[in-house]
Amino acid sequence: MLVSHYISALIGLSIRDIKKFSQQKGRLFSAIVRPALWLFVFAAGVGSARGIDPGILNFYPTQNINYFEYITPGLLGMVLLFSGMQSSLSMVYDREMGVMRLLLTAPLPRWYLLTAKLLSGTFLSVLQAYVFLIICIPIINLLVNFSTPVIGWLYIFPATILFGMMLGALGLLISVYIKQLENFAGTMNFVIFPMFFISSALYPLWRLQDNGAEFVWWIANINPFTYGVELVRWASLGQVYIPGLLVTLVCTIIFLFLATLGYDPQKGMSKKGGGGKPK
Q1: Can you tell me the mean pLDDT for 54-63?
Q2: What Å distances lie between residue 130 and 29, 31, 85, 91, 94, CA to CA?
Q3: Rounded to a whole number, what is the distance in angstroms from the first to the last CA of the chain?
């Protein structure tokens, strides 16, 4: 196979996903409204004049930061997480319609086809995340002052891509186990809400220990979503969070590897038991 064949496959899958996304106008609207409600309503209710203490490992200019600023990286993670699950839904739908069967018969490595699918989904996830930033952050800045510089939202671009790839790879892996489209909603709730709430997206983890919730604290510390949020949070101030970088990278590779095995008809976890002979 020539390199041009690989590039053509990536471009073709990306164009297909972009066209599907452009036809689903409510998808972009919901991707913005959902975190915006958390930012303008939840943060306004929970935040205080003193701000929030991010903990001992503090890289902000002050020990108490505005809650709007603290919650923003977590809400970016929310956008990426829901987008990754939407990609999972798309994979299940394509499998039911037979599109995935046609895709996986292409004369290209299976891992590359799924990686191309992951990259196209990540592009849409990052696009939605930045649309949320462009619309909401200027409005919030009229009300409160952020210590994060404007260029900090450009610093997070590589971290957002890696975070989005990890969540997209998780979506690919989940689509291996979802056999029917009707089962998607329950599975999505089972994955999304624990990942989001048991993390540092809404509150610093030291508060869990301070309140005696040691078990929840341990779960939050092994939650990959926590490391993705912290990776983005550190990047917004020009810092590199090495544990977050390593965890998101390793999890992306593991999730993608398991998803590739799942869609392999020889080794697949989603492989159906033997079929009868055609009559």
Answers
A1: 54
A2: 13, 11, 18, 24, 27
A3: 37
Using CB atoms within 10 Å of the CB of residue 75, give its burial: 0 to 12 exposed, 13 to 18 middle, 19+ buried: buried
Residues 73 and 173 sit within 8 Å (Cβ to Cβ): no
Nearest Cα to 203, choosing from 168, 238, 230? 230
DSSP 202-244: SS-THHHHHTT-HHHHHHHHT-HHHHHHHHHHHHTTT---HHH
Q: Return the pLDDT at 48.
A: 52
Whether 255 contacts 165, CB under 8 Å: no
Query: CB 219: neighbour CB atoms within 10 A?
Result: 15
* Per-residue model confidence as pLDDT tens digits over 143-189: 777 778 889 899 999 999 999 999 999 988 888 777 666 666 677 77
CB 52 within 8 A of CB 204: yes
Report whether pLDDT(57) > 80: no
- Contacts of residue 220, defined as CB under 8 A and 6 or more positions apart, other chains included, come to 198, 199, 200, 205, 208, 226
Would you call 162 helix, strand, or coil by DSSP? Answer: helix
Mean pLDDT of 215-224: 92
Q: What pLDDT shows up at residue 19?
A: 80
Q: How far is CA 171 from CA 140, 178, 190, 232, in A?
A: 31, 10, 13, 20
Q: What is the pTM of this model?
A: 0.83
Angle ∠(216,217,220) on CA atoms, nearest 5: 85
Cβ atoms of residues 262 and 176 within 8 Å: yes
Per-range mean pLDDT, top range of 146-150, 162-166, 256-260, 267-271: 162-166
